[in-house]
Amino acid sequence: MRAAGAAANAGRSPEPLAPELAALGDATRGAIVRLLLDAPDRALTVGRLTDALALRQPTVSHHLRVLHEAGLLDRTPRGREVWYALPEQVATRLEEWAAPVGDSAVSGALLGRIIDDLGTRFAGTFSRETVQRVVLESYDLLRERDGAGRALPSATAQFAAERLSAQQRSAGTARDERRREAGAPIDVLFVCVQNAGRSQLAAAIMRHLGGDRVRVRTAGSAPIDAIRPAVVTALDEIGVPLGGEFPKPLTDDVVRAADVVVTMGCGDACPVYPGRRYLDWAVDDPAGQPLEAVRRIRDDIDGRVRDLLSQLI
User: Fold this and answer.
1) Is the same domain home to 80 and 111?
2) Within a 10 A sphere around the Cβ of 113, how many other Cβ atoms?
3) Domains in the chain: how many in total?
4) CA 70: distance to chain centroid?
5) Region class of 148: left (phi > 0), else alpha (psi between -120 and 50), else beta
6) Residue 269 sits in which domain range?
7) Which residues of the chain have pLDDT under 70?
8) What is the distance between the alpha carbons of residues 298 and 293, in angstroms, rounded to a whole number?
9) Distance (Å, rounded) from C-alpha 155 to C-alpha 289?
């Protein structure tokens, strides 16, 4: 089986694999796993599971069959009863996957819901398999950051949605040209190192000034866990909302979707695709700077954003 990337990190719990995650992406199956984990010898009969879940036996049997076919359960007939058990090598990983959302993980059931929700949102554009892959990749990338904590579920959903939207935007040059002629928003990507200062300042101001005329995304070549408080304060002082933004890693799909890519201090980390306009702004890094210095950086970026917007619109 193929391990997800974050499983290689020392001290972190193994990540769910795609087939198992698909099987666990249901609240009833998550409840079955929890009951088995808590049971003596980690095994129960269909009848006992039916009683514990207060469901009809055919319903429970269906979910057990899905888990068994995914390789998560052993099935053993004993006389007139059928026992389902968690193999020891699987039980260790399921301890984390089936747990409620905690400080370092998202349950399989919750990730399954995110996949279902985004599958509905992008129905007719992407298959469920594509949505699942993007959600798992996004979860893996975000979880590598320290301090993700309880914001990880919503962050995963938002990051995956942005990436799917970017892929939707970049699919087909001819279609993009038709949308541009119809007045579609211009896609602008701001990239810095930590995605916690310069790129967030620029993106917030561009969204505030550009409105529906622009679609703004941000990314970092080495993102940290949270946007710097001084950046939030500096934006609030001029009445610019940050919204639900957070640092995100740089991925190819958001670059491909961009009409304009603005980099600030990230060097050659940003991939180059034909047909995009690339700008590199020499802007001071607000990391570790006092609020007064951050205000000067904000005002510098504000002027650059206004100039760029006047060229684009």
Assistant:
1) no
2) 17
3) 3
4) 24
5) alpha
6) 173-312
7) 1-27, 93-107, 109, 145-151, 172-183, 267-269
8) 9
9) 27
